[in-house]
Amino acid sequence: MVDWGKVNRLRGIPARRVIRAVLFSLFFFAAAAGPGAFAEAPLKKASFIPHWSPQAQFAGYYVAQEEGIYKKHGIDLLIVQGGPHRPSSEILGKGDADFGSIWLSTAIQKRSHGTKIVNIAQIVQRSSLMLIAKKARGIKRPEDLQGKKVGLWGDDFRIQPMAFFKKHNLTVKIVPQSYSVNLFLRDGVDAASAMWYNEYHTILNAGINADELTTFFYSDNGLNFPEDGIYVMEETLKGDPSLACAFVRASIEGWAYAFDHPDRAIDIVLKYMTAANVPANRVHQKWMLERMKDIIMPKDKDAAVPGVLKKEDYERVGEELKRSGLIGAVPDINEFAFGCTGYVQK
Amino acid sequence: MFKNKGIAFKLVLFFTLSSALIFVAIFSYNYLVSRKMIKKGIEENSANLIITTTSRIEVLLTSTQKVPQNVAYLLENTNYDESELFKIIYAIVEKNPEIYGAAIAFEPYAFDRNKKYFAPYFYKNNGAVSFKYLDKFYDYFTWDWYQIPRALEQPQWTEPYFGEGGGILMSSYAVPFYRNVDGARQFTGIIIVDISLDYLRDIVSSIKILNSGYGFLISKNGTFVTHPIKDYIMNETIFSVAEARGDSMLREVGRKMIRGEEGFSATPVKSAVTGKSCIMTYVPIKSNGWSLGVLFPYDELMADITNLNHVVLALGVTGLLLLALAIVFIARSITRPLTEMANAAVQIGKGDLEVQLPEAKAGDEVGKLTVALDCMKTSLKDYIREITETTASRQRMESELKIARNIQMGILPKNFPPFPERTDIDIYASTLPAREVGGDFYDFFLIDKDHLCFVIGDASGKGIPAAIFMAYTKTLIKAKASTDLGTGALMEQVNDELSKGNDADMFITVFCAVLNTVTGDLSYTNGGHNPPIVIRGSGEVSYLDGPGELVVGIMDGSRYSTRTLALKPGDGLFLYTDGVTEAMNDAGEIFSTDRLKDVVLSCRDKTAPEITGFVTDAVNDFCQSAPQYDDITMMVVRYEGKDSLTV
Fold first, then answer.
1. What is the mean pLDDT of residues B70-92?
2. In the 8-state DSSP scheme, what is residue A305?
3. Which domain holds residue B532?
4. ipTM beyond cut 0.90
5. Searching chain A, which residue's CA lies closest to the CA of residue B241?
6. Does residue B177 share a domain with residue B235?
7. Of the residues B268, B301, B334, which one is the last residue of a structural domain?
8. pTM value?
9. pLDDT value at residue B435
């Protein structure tokens, strides 16, 4: 229906307008086809697990749930609570949830290692993983990190940093980083990992001003790894592809609604956070939602539409994983990704 | 702009405004000073409060700190085995009521070459002490309490956290300990004790300032550890609140707080509880780098002085109103009689002297004015009555005078020419009395066919007495004149008659002459009168020489001489009274004998009426609008001689 190449050929039309137009047609399709197709049919039961505790990172899903968008698309959805001790890819593999949000790099490794998960929508197009350092400690350029103590999270959060260090020929002292940024705040490390939408703001709200910080975005250093995507087990997808696609459409509609109604979206997110007994802070969630908009709908003109997994992005991540020795071979994108609306670039 | 306003208005305006100004000045000064005093009071009180509070917190923290510090010292200086470690940790938890739990966590394989994780942990559990190992699932190596003191090589209080047990807010004090390995200090592990922050929360929440003032505690990250709003605790930092409020000042204050500074917020801070403006003071908790903030609600601090100010303001305004009322009352008491008097004066001016004046109640200026106005009214009344009476009598007199004048004018011959059948003599006379009745007179009559007697005189004084005196003289002269009698004898007889019973000491100047119309001889006597002008037919004009004799009627038995003058046909006499020569113009100059002579000279050829007309015009021209002071009387007698008869 919508050909990304065709969209690219629409010269002279600002990318954002094109994206908006594409999004609109997508939602129009969803709105027109959804109720018409599913109004009479009984709701299909399904479950979804986000890959972290409730926060605005998953606002689209919570909003779609609370605003009845899933129901509108014929889904009676149960959102399973995720968290650090409940990796969504494992839950999905065990069959404890039908859909899950997973990082692209995680998903490629899982697929490569035999877990038959399929990407049915790439939501986050821009990597928000970053390194943060204090200017006061003399770190202003990547070279300044040489020999410094750098806090890194484990596993998939290390792929980009290691490539980054390699790219800049840096040898750093890696310090395992916990979920807090206190070690960085107390100057126990010189640089720390952060998600733009989360820890970066946490640091700002611990009293450090933005102009006192040096930031290194991996996405600005040729290491843009698209992050959150929606995954489903291959079997589940084959069993009911229309359900999977309805879930994708509803979720994207949920995101659009959340960006259009940020206050309502944050109310919903805070409700889920409170229910999960997670510390909730409105301004932090507001920041997170705004940044989610920035990384789901990046302003760069060649960024992909929400839901679309660009081949070049996929290959960049896959190649880096292969180079790091984390996977043997990059899985075929046609097996890895399923284009619900037929617009995955082949 | 207030020119036309009444006295009352001006007084009220002036006094009320000036009093209000004074009041505002005093009020403002009082307000500023008392505000300053209260502020100073707050600073002192808050200093006390804060010292008390922080020292209570410090006592709690430092006493807790001692426990693991002592253990670290023990571990670094003695040998120990597992059971001894257990005893130590158990004792810490059991003996210290404020300590919730304690652990000694070793570096990988540092305690036991076969154990990566070794961290015995004792903790209070429903009144008893429970035990567990912190294992690989907990993976303590990456926890802040382990990582931070290890990296910084110094004891650390952790950020507050909720204990696993169920919502108890806790913080831990972690002390690194070391062992000597080949002379080098090698990091071996962390001794940690957990304390509940409930006690600390109680201390801070005991800060109650007036109605809504409160204290709060923030951690090193700015996270609220205690706050009257429960949702803030652990969820918000002072910076997130600043962000939500868009308050960059609060963010700056927060940065100062987490840097361990103390002071007052430069601008008011909004109370999270009431939204009121507050003065905020902050002071560091030195042991753990946290910071205590205390909010003093501004309006409540100022409540007493605000109340006082309200009362003072109310009193002031009431006072001003009363003052204005008093001024209105006083001004009214002045202006009401003044207004009444002004109205009365207008009535009086219109002629209504029966108008009632306000009663003079007091002896002040207004009272005096009333009395004066009343006096004026009475005087005016009397005066007007007098004037009315005088006017009546004067009117009567004037009518009498008019009659007298008519009589007088009747006395004086007024038909000209008097002897129309005779051409040998030309006579003309005129008189212009200064008042209704004058003292001047003239007369002419034929004693017989050939003798013409003519007289001119001026009685002293004016009015009726002069007129009567004049009439009397004229009658006498006319009665006594005869050809047998010389003018001198005639004058003597008249003088004697007049002198008799002249108690008023009146007198009269008289020029009396008798002309023989046949010969032209003129005999004359001048009783003190102005010398007449002789007009010769030849053209000469001169004053009749010879000194005048005594005025008539003043002295009994006075002698008068008879003088003579020969007139040729064409000669004449111009007779006049001093009203002519002494006529005065506006400049104060008199007409004078010289000017008279010149005038007569210029009209010497004219007939008698023409000459008098000429002189009258000359005098009028000279005097212009100046009032006439004296009677102006003239007479011209011209002798034409016998020849003229034949002509």
1. 91
2. P
3. 413-646
4. no
5. A283
6. no
7. B301
8. 0.65
9. 61
